[in-house]
Fold this sequence. Notes:
Layout: H1 12-40, H2 43-47, H3 68-71, H4 79-84, E1 97-104, H5 106-109, H6 119-126, E2 129-130, E3 133-141, H7 147-157, E4 164-169, H8 171-174, H9 184-187, H10 190-199, H11 225-244, H12 283-293, E5 298-302, H13 323-340, E6 343-346, H14 365-376
Parallel strand pairs: 1-3, 1-4, 4-5, 5-6
Antiparallel strand pairs: 2-3
Helix pairs in contact: 6-14, 7-12
Amino acid sequence: MSKANPANPPSSGTTWRFIANVLVKALLLFAALNLLFAAWYPMAGLGRISGYNLLFPGRLRFPFGEVPAQAYNLSLYNVDAMFSSLALNAQPKVADEYRVLVIGDSSVWGTLLRPGETIPGVLDAARLQLCGKTARFYNLGYPTLSVTKDLMVLEEAVRYQPDHILWLVTLEGMARDTQISSSPVLANNAARARDLIRRHNLALDPVDKTLSEPDFWGRTLIGQRRALADLIRLQLYGALWGATGIDQVYPARYTPAQRDFEAGNTAFHGQNGPSLAPDTLALEVIAAGMRVAGSVPVTLVNEPILISAGRNSDVRYNFFYPRWAYDQYRQQLAQAAQANGWTYLDLWDAAPESAFTNSAIHLTPAATADLALRIGAEVGCGK
């Protein structure tokens, strides 16, 4: 057996050349992996890899959170990961299930509400019988005001074989000029947004400056490090969600929705009335959603708003809406529904002023339950 000759140890030059060689190869390999990742760009596929419904329960609403460490939740922009985290994704639809998907904004998602206190949560617990089947309601609301965001969600949601779709809307979510900018989850899915605009001939700008699409270097491992970290954190928070059932922060106190307003403040998106400009409302997005739903019945609901009795409430209903603009919106939406044969439910004044919490569209648990049952009464077999 040969032995190393202590008289001839490796020279320091040889050692450094070896280290340099290893480092160069490692850097080349890392660069190659980055280029391969950017060319392949597997973020959608990675989003579908999930421990939800396997290692821990599926979520009852989309991931969304501004204080992740306390809410065991976070906001991310990977639509595939968002859907993969849901209980809806747990198993195929069973034969005796009448499946109802509920889409909309934060009033559907349930700001300040626990999952079972939301509109879908209340209706799901009611176990309504429809078409000889047990109705199951799934929460697909997301806390931004944009019906184009809803359309993006709906296009993915129809894969889950719904029997009925409830779509809650409000004026702010219909405003054309903020369809993209008001919804980061839409703005950060530029390819999906542009595809929606093109296929449905939406009167929106496909080169809107708020659309964020990574360039080649942004698609590398380095460029996607935050998005990859979010995918990992979503799984880690899933275990905490499963153990606690907590998915948002429930503060002991919150700032109530504004009820007093400045005199003469009649502005709505740069307009001062008395009529909305003809292209203000993105009604063609609603029409596109109806086409996406196909033969599945859709009930379009104009959700309740806070009707203030405070100072200068003769000019504004609430922080969002001057009276002239909201009244015009209701008229135009009702006319569009009638002209197109949409099933439409106008519940704008269905909740008293005292029922609203931190926003002109967020309700208390009790008021949400009342609203849910009122909506549920309109979901009939074949309606």
